[in-house]
Amino acid sequence: MTLPHDHDDDLHAHDLGFAHDLPMMVGRRRLLALMGGIGLVSLTGGAAAALECVALPWETAGPYPADGTNVKGGQVVNALTEDGVIRQDLRSSFGTLTPVAEGVRLDVELTIVDADGCTPLEGHAIYLWHCDAVGQYSLYDLTDANFLRGVGVADAEGKVRFTTIFPGCYDGRWPHMHFEIFESASAAVSGDGSLLTAQIAMAEADSAAVYVADPRYSNGTRNLGRISIATDGVFRDNSEAEIAQQTMALSGDPTSGYSGTVTIAVDLTAERSSGGMPAPPPGQPPRS
């Protein structure tokens, strides 16, 4: 679901915005033909293969992207122009900042493919960002940190790997990660519009296990109990196939950490959406 964009003249007063010149999306790829195909494929794995090519819908980038599309305190927030943003371990801050995010380790493998044929998008870049263990975002809630943000470049198989922490659950949102896909790393850091802006959902059972076991996720259990995928403001209007596609498959436990995989199928013909939102005023809780 792409939430309404709150326009602000300040958001357009610079030349690094990723999406200010993009038209609002007027539709989303329909999956009826694909779902019909799933019903016909072999039960020995064909359905799973078909699922890997469900094009993910555009979602809002939310108010904390730090990609040059919004401002905080009158200043453009853009982590993508900082030295060190292309990296694998997202737990530490980079550039001139030093704080390190604490939480349950999560090793992520993302596979970026063209939804038309499920072919790897080698050389494409992904910018991934998410909240910390208690739902705070670096550069906005935590102005002295830029952790849990970074860019990776897909290899010949379309794979990008990150080491990060399991994201927390803040009030009003299902546990999630944000991402933007770009044609290349240079496109990501130069302010080009993304090919896809979307979100990854975390599995309920694993999220619940982390929040119960680790005291660093002090508000996770309470907040998770107040929300569901069906009521989440971003995921609730997605189809079952889309939800399955964008939910991370996880293995592991809260003590030893987790490994997670997601196949991100990009519809390169989809109309682009400006999904950014202004940063909220001080004291207001995260919104997406």
UniProtKB/TrEMBL annotation:
PROSITE patterns (UniProt xref): TAT
Domain Intradiol ring-cleavage dioxygenases: 102-173
GO MF annotations, alphabetized: ferric iron binding; oxidoreductase activity, acting on single donors with incorporation of molecular oxygen, incorporation of two atoms of oxygen
Protein keywords: Dioxygenase, Oxidoreductase
Region (Disordered): 269-288
Bias kind Pro residues: ranges: 278-288
Gene3D superfamilies, alphabetized: Aromatic compound dioxygenase
InterPro entries in UniProt: Intradiol_dOase_C, Intradiol_dOase_core, TAT_signal
Protein name (Swiss-Prot/TrEMBL): Dioxygenase
